[in-house]
Amino acid sequence: MVTGAFADRGADLELVGIQKRFPGFTAIEHLDLVIPAGSFFALLGPSGCGKTTTLRLVAGLEEPTDGRILIGGKDVTTQKAYQRPVNTVFQSYALFPHMTVLENVAFGLRRRKITDARSLAHEALRLVELDHLAARRPGQLSGGQQQRVALARAIVNRPALLLLDEPLGALDLKLRRQMQLELKSIQEDVGLTFLHVTHDQEEAMTMADTIAVMNKGRIEQLGAPEQLYDLPKTAFVANFLGQSNLFTGPVLGETSTSITVDVAGRGIVVPKARSHRHAGDVTIGVRPEKLTLHRENPVADSSHNVMGPGRVRDVSFTGVSTQYLVAVPGIGTLVVFEQNRSFGPVEGEGDEVWLTWNVEHGFGLDDDPADWETKFVADTSTKSIAAQRRATLVTELEEA
């Protein structure tokens, strides 16, 4: 990759007490967030969680009901979109079909009357490794190449903050994975601050330094990808960021290093350091790939938890691993991922099995099992949805 003129770091972003309410529903309840300069930050969550609204607020395409937005320490809450040091890359690319690739990238610079627009555009295209296609039109490019042109057009303006709104959603799986690595590499080269909005867990974990998992207008948990996956704080994070087997029960006892939870008459041990709650009813969990299947009841071992017997209900071959659904009486169905080290599944449908996992692989959530209620209800009337979609389309046309 080419470095040099694009090596300057971006600015930090701070959201203070942000609220956004639309007629009939709340998009963002209360949001405080600091994104350090030069980082690759991902807002991850399902549709309707408030992540895209947050991005639009930062871009200046929406106004907050309450709160402040600071970029590089400067309050930009009341500034218009064109006044902010921000550029956005949309999923739709929004390239001009009648212009060449070079003209598309240089368009914004020429509107600002930058004298060396052409050379800067070439530099941005070299950064995304497309300068050899500068004379082509967007219709002659693949989807991945068009995405990189859109990225070059955004970077060439040297924004302090680059916003990525589901930028890879229109690409096929293989190309999407390739672009994930390329985007991360480009971000490291240019040193700008990237704020990436996505519902794709793999995408966020592959590219981002830090992930904020959003749910119903709030941040459920924030941290490094490995931290969120290995030690989720809530049931929502545990199930949205991958899959989890969760159990709820009262704490039976504790030592200086662990707690024992009664799960349908079985004592399940979890390290205190990996549990957010140590008394009362708690929810504990373990990831499917941490489980091991046994055909016979394993010998008791203080370093492992044992559950079973259960019955294999379903076997699904996924290539790298095989997924087993195991029904355990009194507990429910557990998911097990086993890496494929031999040809075909190890266990078959209907087999009796026991499950074990290392005590150190379990985790305890901060959720109160009696308090898993919806924080607020969204108004999903067709009128509201249509208005939001129209606003999004108008914004993308204006950006183009």
- Structure summary, number of beta strands: 20
CATH topology of the largest domain: Rossmann fold
Largest β-sheet summary: 6 strands, mixed
Order of helices and strands: EEEHEEEHHHEHEHEEHHEEEEEEEEEEH
Helix % is 10-25%
Integer-rounded radius of gyration:
25 Å
**Beta-strand residue percentage:** 25-35%
CATH class of the largest domain: Alpha Beta
Q: Which strand order spans the largest sheet, edge to edge or round the barrel? A: 6-7-8-3-9-10
The chain-level structural class is: alpha+beta
Please, could you describe this protein's structure?
By secondary structure, this protein is of the alpha+beta class. It has two domains: 13-217 and 381-399, Rossmann fold; 242-364, OB fold (Dihydrolipoamide Acetyltransferase, E2P) (Beta Barrel), CATH 2.40.50.140. It is built from nine helices and 20 strands. The protein has helices at 51-59, 101-111, 117-127, 143-155, 173-190, 201-207, 225-230, 235-240, 382-399, and strands at residues 13-22, 25-35, 40-44, 66-71, 74-75, 86-90, 161-165, 193-198, 210-215, 218-223, 245-254, 258-263, 266-271, 281-286, 292-294, 304-317, 321-328, 332-339, 352-358, 363-364. The protein is elongated, with a radius of gyration of 25 Å.
